[in-house]
């Protein structure tokens, strides 16, 4: 027995040593393969010879200009926007990310960047209209863009809303703005649909099911002639070249969309008064030397205004609260009433301009009637908002928030609305679009 135990122990020790040695050799083999792959990548090179035949009646000296096209060479615009901390100006650095895999080095060349179709969020999510319709038979589930809403399980809906917000933030980080906005709006649709579809749930239970999410720190043809000689070697990775730099005078304001996110964002309205067209492209945003987030700039013509976001301002805080709700029957209709309160706390030492956004459900047909009962203060009278957004039941207030406005001094917005539909029908679905 002693011999067997000792033999087994020796064999086990040898097996362990061999396993460790095998793991080390496998790791070394993988490293060598990666290095060989790097060396082999792009190593193939095709050399082409151009034969030019010149027929001239006059035996005089001259110059021949030879043009040819190469593949695997392109560029895309990138930007850096810097908001100065100590002076009112925003600097835009126009950058070209160049891919040069033509197989030859470009030494001391005059580089011209041209595009007819250029190669393609620090901003808050965009608020979409919340469409509502009704169905004859009350269903146990409602379909929302991002999944299925369970009428009786608001806790599960709250969990799914949190998942959608997390997915939306990750999509913003990868510059997939459209899908990110859809995730945030679907998450808000889950929460708002619970509020609407469960009007008999006690307020204390509703607050527990949907707590405020925690704040997370965190076609045009254009040609650019560069005014200096450049050397652009043949490389596998992108090369960054500064094209130009421009300075703009910003008109700062803040934007809050508490139904989508608890953050308050700092934005600036800028006018492109430079001599360059801004092409669609990715931008990194800075305040001074501090990186505050990423954004995507649209096509901006010379003289056109555009909005740039400069991240979250922790000195501003906002809460959205469902204060009261009720369900009554009037004639052949059931009437749901909802009261909301939005409170803004400012810890800043100067007054700021704030755009505050929210939304009401929007009936796709006359079967659902949504009416604003009251709002204090009144919604914005901005002409563009009244024409474009207000008909979709999107709400906007333009506020001036005084310094250190918090506690009893915190400005608030309150509004009340009602939704009416036939008592023998039920809500069919909610859709952010």
Short description:
This protein has 433 residues and is of the alpha+beta class. Helices cover 21% and strands 41% of the residues. It has a five-stranded mixed β-sheet with strand order 8-2-1-11-12, with no helix packed on it. A five-stranded mixed β-sheet has the order 13-10-9-16-19, with no helix packed on it. Strands 14-15-20-18 form a four-stranded antiparallel β-sheet, with no helix packed on it.
Helix content: 10-25%
Radius of gyration from CA coordinates: 31 Å
**Largest sheet data:** 5 strands, mixed
Shape: extended
The chain-level structural class is alpha+beta
Strand order of the largest sheet: 8-2-1-11-12
Descriptive notes:
The protein is of the alpha+beta class. The chain has five helices and 21 strands. It has helices at residues 2-40, 154-173, 177-197, 203-209, 383-388, and strands spanning 73-83, 90-100, 106-115, 130-135, 141-144, 147-150, 222-232, 239-248, 251-256, 264-271, 281-287, 290-297, 305-312, 316-330, 333-346, 352-359, 361-363, 369-376, 394-401, 412-422, 426-432. The strands form six sheets. The chain has a five-stranded mixed beta sheet with strand order 8-2-1-11-12, with no helix packed on it. It has a five-stranded mixed beta sheet with strand order 13-10-9-16-19, with no helix packed on it. Helix 2 (154-173) runs antiparallel to helix 3. The protein starts with a helix and ends with a strand. The model is unreliable at 116-120 and 213-219 (pLDDT under 50).
């Amino acid at each position: 027995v002693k011999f067997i135990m000792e033999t087994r122990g020796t064999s086990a020790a040898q097996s362990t040593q061999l396993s460790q040695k095998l793991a080390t050799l496998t790791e070394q083999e993988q490293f060598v393969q990666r290095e060989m792959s790097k060396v082999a990548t792009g190593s193939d090179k095709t050399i082409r010879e151009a034969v030019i035949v010149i027929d001239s009646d006059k035996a005089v000296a001259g110059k021949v200009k030879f043009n040819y096209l190469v593949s695997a060479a392109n560029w895309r615009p990138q930007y850096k926007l810097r908001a100065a901390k100590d002076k009112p100006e925003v600097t835009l650095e126009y950058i070209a990310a160049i891919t040069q895999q033509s197989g030859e080095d470009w030494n001391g060349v005059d580089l011209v960047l041209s595009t007819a179709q250029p190669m393609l969020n620090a901003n808050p999510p965009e608020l979409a209209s919340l469409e509502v319709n009704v169905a004859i038979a009350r269903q146990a589930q409602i379909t929302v863009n991002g999944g299925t809403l369970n009428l009786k399980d608001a806790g599960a809906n709250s969990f799914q809303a949190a998942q959608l917000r997390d997915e939306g933030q990750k999509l913003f980080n990868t510059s997939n703005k459209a899908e990110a906005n859809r995730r945030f709006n679907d998450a808000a649709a889950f929460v708002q649909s619970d509020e609407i579809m469960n009007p008999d749930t006690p307020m204390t239970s509703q607050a527990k099911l949907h707590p405020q999410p925690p704040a997370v720190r965190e076609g045009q043809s254009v040609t650019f002639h560069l005014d200096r000689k450049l050397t652009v070697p043949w490389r596998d990775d992108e090369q960054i070249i500064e094209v130009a730099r421009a300075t703009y005078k910003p008109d700062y304001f803040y934007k809050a969309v508490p139904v989508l996110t608890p953050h308050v964002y700092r934005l600036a309205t800028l006018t492109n008064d430079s001599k360059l067209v801004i092409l669609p492209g990715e931008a990194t945003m800075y305040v001074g030397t501090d990186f505050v987030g990423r954004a995507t700039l649209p096509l901006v013509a010379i003289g056109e205004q555009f909005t740039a976001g400069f991240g979250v301002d922790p000195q501003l805080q906002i809460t959205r609260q469902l204060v009261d709700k009720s369900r009554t029957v009037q004639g052949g209709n059931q009437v749901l009433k909802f009261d909301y309160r939005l409170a803004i706390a400012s810890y800043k030492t100067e007054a700021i301009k704030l755009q505050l956004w929210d939304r009401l459900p929007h009936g796709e047909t006359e079967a659902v009637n949504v009416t604003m009962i009251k709002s204090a203060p009144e919604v914005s009278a901005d002409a563009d908002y009244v024409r474009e957004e207000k008909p979709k039941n999107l709400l906007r207030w333009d506020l001036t928030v005084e310094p250190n406005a918090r506690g009893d001094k915190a400005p608030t917005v309150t509004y009340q609305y009602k939704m009416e539909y036939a008592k023998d029908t039920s809500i069919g679905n909610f859709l952010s679009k």
